[in-house]
Amino acid sequence: GYQKVSFDDAANVYIINTCSVTDNADKECKLHVKRAMKANPDGLVVIVGCYAQLKPEEISAIEGVDLVLGAKEKFNILSYLEDLEKSEQHAQVHSCEIEETDFFIGSYSIGDRTRAFLKVQDGCNYKCTYCTIPLARGISRSDTVENVVKNAKEIAEKDIKEIVLTGVNIGDYGKGEFGN
pTM (2 decimals)? Predict the structure, then answer.
C-alpha cells in the first residue's frame, strides 16, 4: 500500500538507510533527517542500516527520528510502521544483538539505472581492527543458488540487461551453509 516518491517530496514515511564505514555517518544521517522534516514535518522518519545497528540510542536522540531498526528488525519494517506515530520524545528503538542476525534474506535493487544489483552474500567473519562490518552486519552468510537464480530471472523479466552480484565479502559466497 506504499508508493515510492522522491526524497524531497512530502511523504508520510521517510526510510533512511545509514552507513557506518565513513566518519560522516552521523552527520549525513542528521542531514537527511532535516531534509525529511523540511519536506513534511509530520512525516515519520525511520532509520535503518549499519549506523542504526551500531549506535541506535544515539540516533534515537536526533530530533525528528521516530523509529530506529537494527540489522534483524529492518526486515519487519512494515509491522513496526502499523502502530507508529510521530513523537516529540526519543524514537522507538528495536535493535537485536548482532549474533541474532544469522539468516539471509535475498534482495535486489532496480532503479533508474541500466543494471540491477543482486545481493547474494552479507556479513563478514573477519575481525579486522579498523572495520565495523562484523558488528553492524553479523556473520558471513549466503543466499541459496536456487534463490539467486529465481531473483535473476525476476530481474531479467523486467528487461534489465545486466546484473551485478553484490555482498559485503562476496569472496565468502557459499562458505558454510547456503541460506544461512
Answer: 0.85
